[in-house]
Amino acid sequence: MNHYISMIVLANTVTTVAGGIIALLARRAFRRTQTGPLGLAAVGFGCIIGGAAGGTVGYLFSETLMVGLLIQSVSTAGGVILILCSLYAGPYSPAAAESTG
After folding, report:
1. Does an H or E element contain 57, and which?
2. How far is CA 66 from the centre of its chain?
3. pLDDT, tens digit, 9 for 90 and up, residues 56-92
4. Residue 21 CB: number of other CB atoms within 10 A?
5. Cβ contact 36:89 at 8 Å
6. Closest by alpha carbon to 1, among 80, 60, 82?
7. Residue 62 gets which letter from DSSP?
């Protein structure tokens, strides 16, 4: 294993741990508030950390770096899109929903 793969694995491990903490905090906030955008953000961060973990496995067990890169890139793109949707959705006010319904 060359030193580039070691550096990639280390960076992805840090991303997985830090992203996991962020996803856990977003999930806790979602469960507490039942706000849809927070749920999307938690899933988005989950996709990103899943991509980092899957990319690491791809880097370690495939013959080329392309498998890990593909796994990581697709998952990261999906996660970023979900986080973008969560930010675009705007705040949800239960009081406003009750007054309109």
Report:
1. helix 36-61
2. 20
3. 788 778 777 788 888 888 988 999 898 888 888 666 5
4. 12
5. yes
6. 60
7. S
